[in-house]
């Protein structure tokens, strides 16, 4: 169905002339008009001390980190690996060094710009050209955490999307001049205090989660001696023809010496193939989503590096859920991302609520006596990462199938240590989820204040 809207000639002038229909989509116009009706509204360019696009540095394989757009999501600016620059390049671009409480925002992406988060430490980093910086002065009328949450609201994201334009390389681009014109509503100090308290509590929970997860990781690596391993990097290697016949794999990737070195190391401990310690191993199904559904659907975008995003799960109907029993998720199931950039990412499902796994999520249900939290960390460790790389197949896009996961060799350390590691992982996941709930409460309060301030 076609969407039509009308606008006056006077509205065609913004920070620069925009004549494209996208800029005047009804939902964008409504969001802008509602926000601009708030008494005392100001512009982002007036409240910020600095708004700028990142640099275009020369990257190296090792050095000081440079944050890129792929690192930034709602809730983190440390997703995945950054780029790196030399110490000399870092010094040359010292004007682009990030500070604690800076806001970073994605400026270029194939489908979505405007992912925004806050710098939470003083580690030395610069930022690249596909990242923007929003820095507030010390006497700003709006605090960093409140501005972050405002930009994270539905209204804030609509206005950012309105600012985006089509790039020359097939990417969406967020214009800095338009970003400066984004309206910012006034919020009282009393309300900002409450919002900032929720944000601070959220970050404390997140720090607790990170600490416990790192404790679990260090304990696992120490138990298995992974922290002392050095993997071979030969210039060439040989695979036997008999192995090619057995595995039905003729690609060099599958036979890397480091993979065999890891399996040999693990096999010195009590260990087993997944096929011998699991009850159920199957991919989910393509779900039928329902706006008014009551059953959660878990797809790949909900599997974070160290959490499941329970707050944003999509829904399906009870009838669709009942018709797909093979994709039902149970408490303590491992959920494994099987396709694309984050293939092999694994989390443990800790909810009692019924849920359905989508077609890019593999359900792995273990036998009693195997701690699921422990095994989730094993899959996230080098043990799981290497075997994911070894068994994944596909040229255009890597895929991991249930029979591939069945071949994984995993260490089975003593039950007591498994439980200690598993409990640390579960506590981390619970605290991470608590952090998200607090963030959602803070964002909801900002949205409520905006609605109350809009003049009828």
Structure overview:
With 456 residues, the protein is an alpha+beta fold. It folds into 2 domains: 9-186, DNA methylase specificity domains (Adenine-n6-DNA-methyltransferase TaqI, Chain A, domain 2); 212-428, Alpha-Beta Complex (Adenine-n6-DNA-methyltransferase TaqI, Chain A, domain 2). It is built from 14 helices and 22 strands. The chain has helices at 26-36, 44-47, 87-92, 144-152, 154-163, 176-179, 189-224, 241-247, 257-267, 318-322, 372-380, 382-391, 402-406, 415-453; strands at 42-43, 50-53, 64-67, 83-85, 103-106, 108-109, 116-118, 126-127, 131-135, 164-166, 172-174, 183-184, 271-273, 278-283, 295-298, 314-316, 328-329, 334-337, 346-348, 355-357, 361-366, 409-411. It has a 4-stranded antiparallel β-sheet with strand order 2-9-5-7, covered by helices on one side. A 4-stranded antiparallel β-sheet has the order 14-21-18-19. The radius of gyration is 25 Å and the shape is globular. The chain starts with 25 loop residues before the first helix and ends with a helix.
Summarize it.
This protein is of the alpha+beta class. It has helices at residues 26-36, 44-47, 87-92, 144-152, 154-163, 176-179, 189-224, 241-247, 257-267, 318-322, 372-380, 382-391, 402-406, 415-453; strands at residues 42-43, 50-53, 64-67, 83-85, 103-106, 108-109, 116-118, 126-127, 131-135, 164-166, 172-174, 183-184, 271-273, 278-283, 295-298, 314-316, 328-329, 334-337, 346-348, 355-357, 361-366, 409-411.
């Amino acid at each position: 169905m076609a969407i039509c809207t009308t606008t006056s000639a006077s509205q065609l002038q913004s920070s620069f002339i925009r004549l494209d229909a996208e800029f005047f989509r009804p939902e964008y116009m409504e969001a802008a008009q509602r926000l601009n009706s708030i008494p005392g509204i100001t512009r982002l360019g007036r409240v910020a001390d600095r708004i700028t696009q990142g640099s275009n540095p020369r990257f190296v394989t090792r050095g000081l980190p440079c944050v890129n757009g792929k690192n930034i999501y709602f809730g983190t600016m440390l997703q995945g690996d950054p780029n790196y620059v030399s110490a000399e390049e870092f010094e040359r671009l010292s004007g682009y060094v990030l500070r604690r409480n800076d806001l970073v925002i994605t400026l270029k992406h194939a489908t979505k710009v405007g992912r925004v988060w806050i710098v939470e430490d003083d580690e030395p980093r610069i930022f690249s050209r596909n990242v923007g910086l929003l820095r507030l002065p010390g006497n700003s009328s709006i605090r960093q955490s409140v501005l972050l949450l405002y930009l994270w609201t539905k209204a804030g994201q609509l206005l950012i999307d309105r600012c985006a334009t089509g790039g020359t390389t097939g990417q969406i681009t967020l214009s800095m001049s338009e970003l400066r014109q984004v309206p910012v509503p006034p919020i009282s100090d009393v309300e900002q205090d409450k919002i900032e308290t929720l944000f601070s509590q959220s970050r404390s929970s997140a720090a607790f989660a990170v600490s416990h997860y790192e404790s679990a990781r260090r304990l696992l690596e120490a138990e298995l001696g992974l922290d002392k391993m050095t993997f071979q990097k030969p210039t060439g290697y040989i695979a036997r023809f008999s192995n090619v016949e057995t595995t039905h794999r003729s690609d060099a990737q599958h036979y890397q010496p480091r993979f065999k070195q890891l399996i040999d190391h693990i096999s010195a401990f009590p260990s087993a193939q997944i096929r011998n310690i699991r009850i159920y191993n199957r991919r989910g199904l393509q779900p039928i989503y329902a706006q008014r559904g009551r059953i959660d659907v878990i797809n790949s975008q909900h599997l974070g590096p160290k959490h499941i995003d329970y707050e944003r799960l999509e829904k399906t109907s009870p009838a669709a859920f009942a018709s797909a029993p093979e994709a039902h998720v149970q408490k303590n199931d491992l959920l494994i991302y099987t396709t694309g950039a984050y293939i092999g990412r694994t989390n443990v499902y800790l909810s009692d609520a019924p849920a359905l796994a989508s077609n890019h999520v593999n359900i792995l249900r273990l036998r009693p006596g195997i701690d699921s939290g422990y095994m989730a960390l094993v899959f996230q460790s080098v043990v799981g990462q290497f075997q994911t790389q070894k068994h994944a197949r596909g040229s255009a896009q890597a895929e991991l199938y249930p029979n591939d996961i069945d071949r994984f060799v995993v260490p089975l350390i003593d039950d007591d240590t498994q439980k200690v590691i598993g409990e640390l992982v579960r506590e981390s996941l619970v605290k991470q989820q608590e952090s998200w709930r607090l963030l959602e409460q803070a964002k909801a309060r900002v949205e409520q204040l905006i609605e109350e301030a809009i003049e009828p």
